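Bench notes, bay 3.
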Amino acid sequence: MAPQPKPADDARPALADKALLTTGADYWGTHEVPALGVRRLRLSDGPHGLRVQDDDNPDHLGLGRSLPATCFPPAVTLASTWDPDLILSVGEALGREARFRGVDVVLGPGIEIKRSPLCGRNFEYYSEDPLLTGRLAAAMVRGIQSQGVAACLKHFACNTQETDRLRVSADVDERPLREIYLLAFELTIRDGHPWALMSAYNRINDVPASQNPWLLTRVLRDEWGFDGVVVSDWGAVSDPVAALEAGVDLRMPGQPQDTRVRDALADGSLDEKVLDRVAERLALLARRTQASARPAEVDVEAHHQVTRRAAAQGAVLLHNDANLLPLDPGTVGSVAVIGELARTPRYQGAGSSAVNPTRVVPALDALRGRLAGVASVGFAPGYTVTAEEGNDDLVAEAVRLAGTSDLAILFLGLPPAYEAEGRDRTTIDLPDAQIDLIRAVASANPRTVVALSNGSAVTTATWRDEVGAIVEFWLTGQAHGDSVADVLLGEVNPSGKLPETVPLRLEDTSSYLDFPGESGHVRHGEGIFVGYRWFDARRLEVDYPFGHGLSYTSFGYSDLDIAVHEADDLEALTVSVTLTNTGPRAGAEVVQVYVGDRSGVLLMPQRELRGFAKVRLEPGASQQVGIAIRRDDLEHYHPEVGWVFTGGPMEVSVGSSSRDIRLHGTVEVPGHPVEIPLTIWSPLGDWLGHPVAGPALRALIDARGGITGRLGDLLSSEVSANSALGSPIASVTQFPGFPVSIEEAEDVLNRL
């Protein structure tokens, strides 16, 4: 066969077309370039329900112009389920709706670490713990992508506050950056394989996240192997050429009129290969999201029931004195439902993730429907959601109703203005008017239950003991009332566990003095001690600990067995216990495994979550629960040598929360020794103990008569020897009597 002629230059994709691919065509879509195998791709918020919008009239504030869609529970509630399988089913439903609407990329999940309970967007994020975040977010990613729709992790990285979020520099040392803030992304990518990722607005150590080659190329692609598309947050790119070179593929929203990329191509300052990589990644995304046909319809009712089930499973029973819950209609003739949130529910957060739901079920309606003909249900609003001050008349009405009822259920929570995209909170308390209402109602009727609706942690410390029971429902999604009634009436046994610590006081939190920063910088001075790691290290009392959650039944733990695997096994440990339902009802328990590294190689938290399993049991039933602990999940980041696991003594604790430890044991786990590279700033003791440099240095010292003078006196004294051995060799060589020069020490280094 005769050789085929090369295509004419005008048949090759034009540079202008390649440049177009680097930015959107409009607010929500990309450019179509068939010659490069890239069709138009549609992106949409959000992480807990679609916000498909009109390109010419976008609804960034979530005011209701988007098409109706199922409002699923936000991440704060899903995280409380500690149930990857359930979250997978939510992701599948979200993916089906996205495919039905012609959406190729869902902008979520959001997996920032909850550094402070004040972050106004905490409702969109999973946890204060990176392992829990990574496990749950990976399930959401797999669910969405099972429908041929890309999940887009966000916001990469350290977007842990809303104050000054478009420019603030998160100043973080490398160890906490790696172990806490980046690890959630790394684990989600490892276990979920997302097809897209969104870069953040903020700077990290003074470098914009969207123009950070260390973050977007070296770590994300070279170390983690991410092969998807990096999308900028909307408006996060100030220099599109620098962003492309750093690793951003798609700048959003569309700015096709911006000529800077084309100009850089024309003058040779931007290599065309950078655009070739962008085209390849977008073409791969286009192929990945064409895998499933667009369904003819979506079962809206089935998705509503998924929402109902997920919200009920995410409810956390914080407090249940005298077993007030579950409510038994047969013994309660009258119920006082108090609180405007019972009639006007708050079921999702405010901002770009706000969903226009297909329907909403208020708790008041659900309770009246369930208790019709069994118990009378009275209602009093008690407060106005938007008012800061209490209303004496509303309180008096609520007190009268509570005083004449067998049981009072107070519906309380945070108004939308308290937590929203673009603003942080200033307190972890409920509004003063609601706290005053608690005290008034509880005085009138000690049989008072509090049902909370909020997207960020609120402390109950100042009023907890005045009520009989507290259920944290978080933000439930559109099936709100049915989910709440399912739990309060005992049709669902609550099994939610806190994915974050609830502190007694704001002043006790690790970020208290450094949040939200000043002068464009926020210092993460607490290092790796975020959340429960901080409270444990400081031995601080908390309102409710990480992992806490009660049940309408009880569980016993026994027969702890810790199997230790060989040093080269991908799994370091297998932890087994027998779990028994010792109570009267069927229910689920989350078995939590914490490991405390006692090797002493680095400063370590007292204990860290390293595995968990949610187990459902009938009354009286037992099950052996085995939880494998991956070796790489036991690693810590050493600033000088990277990720290490040296092995050594490990304290393994198994329990129902981070502070409700039922069983524990200590084992020796094999690992790999850490070899710290020598420098001229390494201590003299490290030099002398080094297997190669040590003999070379000693030979020089011995050949010259040993160490004399003051340094020799220090080394010969048991009391002061550590002072000399702990001094850098760069300093030691300056002392009279030390017979080796700094140049000779450097020569030893060069010969290593």
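Next record in the batch:
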Amino acid sequence: MSKLATAAKRLVVGRPFRSDRLSRTLLPKRIALPVFASDPMSSVAYAPEEILLMLSIAGASAYAFSPWIAIFVAVVMIAVVASYRQNVRAYTSGGGDYEVANVNHGRRWGLVVGSALLVDYVLTVSVSISAAAANVGAILPVVAEHKVGFAVGAILLLTAMNLRGVRESGTTFAIPSYAFVVGILGMILWGAIRVFVFGEEMRAESADFQLVEEGQHLAGFGLVFLVLRAFSSGSAALTGVEAISNGVPAFRKPKGRNAANTLLMMGAIAITMFLGLIFLARVTGAVLADDPAHQLINAPDGYQQKTLIAQLANAVFTGFQPAVWYVLFFTGLILVLAANTAFNGFPALGSILAQDRYLPRQLHTRGDRLAFSNGILFLSGFAVLLVVVFEAEVTQLIQLYIVGVFMSFTISQSGMVRHWNRLLRTETDPAARRRMRRSQAINSFGFIMTGSVLIIVLITKFAAGAWITIVAMAVIFALMTAIRRHYDRVSAELHAAEDRPRVLPSRNHAIVLVSTVHLPTIRALAYARATRPDVLEAVTVNVDDTSTRELAAEWEKQEFPVPLKVIESPYREITRPVLDYVKRMRGDNPRDVVTVFIPEYVVGHWWEHLLHNQSALRLKGRLLFQPGVMVTSVPWQLASSARVRDRTRIAPGDVRRGLYTRDEGDDDA
């Protein structure tokens, strides 16, 4: 079973890496861009669509607001990218927003940011994979019919790829990421050429559909609220920017400069694609309904609404289906791979939080391939849960999204403002002060923009599902606080013990548990005698009079130099009488140490574990809670364990003792 599990692990993960290979896994900018920026670049595949879907509630006339909303989203993105370029230069350890908040605002605000980012990373995976299922479903109906299954399978595939290591997954993702960028930019460019150069008219398949309003949304506060809600949905295009600040340690040196340059490239590409898709949506007249069955009154029977990307590709590349398939294929693929941003950000942040004792320590260590394997597994598990619960519906998941993103954005930017204020108090060089003032102004502008968006998001999305995200953040905050208290309490106890007088035990009272006279018992007795305890006795529990009399007779016959003590058990228990006996020994001599030797079988098959050692496990589990009691397992290897025994090295005397034959020794040699 162990060999089978190891073989399966090697098949999925690969051969383990030595720790000194960590430097070889660092990423150049050309690989770091698809690894860390695939999420913000790919979010343009659904952010423009979400703007139109939200505006559709007020009817087709509300689409006139889409260009202005897109421009405001682009302005916010510019502010965020410019601000985070200051972040990654100032904080290169990989803590990102969490480190900025923790250093400049204190521990509690750092935990707020940490909990927000953890929730956001899980939602990044869920939203990206669900959007991928919708886009792939536009050309493959079988995927549209089984969106949840497709999404779960994609998450598991990403998990396996990331377990193989950051550099390996980045190299794998680079080609489809760049192919997606080429496809979208090529579609925008060709569409612009057809409109402005050739003067052609491009019409989306839904351009002639009549879109009716749901209720009254075109007047007063209702219209303002709807536009703000569309803006908050479109702001999903900014998600993923923070991943680069958390992934700075994965960049090659100079880390801060390379991360800042990657941010700049990512921002330029994402803004161009975002605005270009809104432009194409306007010139093609694409119509998307929040409720197609009721809002599209002249659509054909059985009409299945396609994604915005699918409609634009068909309109721009009319008569050239290979280009349409190219765009849709790589859009679906990049949306799957966009989740990789979270697969790099979540484990890195989890490791830092674990190092600060806010999360279990298992999240801090790297796996066989120098990736944070436990963090990757945690992320995939929670993402699968969300996809199943919300049935891979992007519109439902998007309501939970971006709350955590903009909360971390806002707190981080305010922290950077305090960071520059602190440095300016001691800096005297005029040139350095000018650079700091410029950076401070950029972060202040970013704080104003992201804070404004956060308020809009909270107002417009709270009742629609954002409250779930806030509750999740509060739960994670409380959980991390409780974990830190636990680790602090344990640390205080362990260090307090160092202040106590170092008094050695008066005596060692050794007990060998005996059920019958056989080789494991003899080995346990021999080992117990070799430790030279002050008192040594064998103990058996009388659960059957006949068996106990036979054991006592055999004990006398073998003439063991150790007395056998029989403990009565009228209710045929084993664990309780042994515990009571050990407690009495401790009570009579509190300064003595009681050492209990338990013979155990070592088996080679999983099913044999069900047939052996159950009493020993129960006893060990209970004895470990007894103060002043040491528990020692004395193993006896059964024949079935020979197949898992390391036979490459034979100890001197093993052949003479009969543990190996000479033929076996020769074969191994």
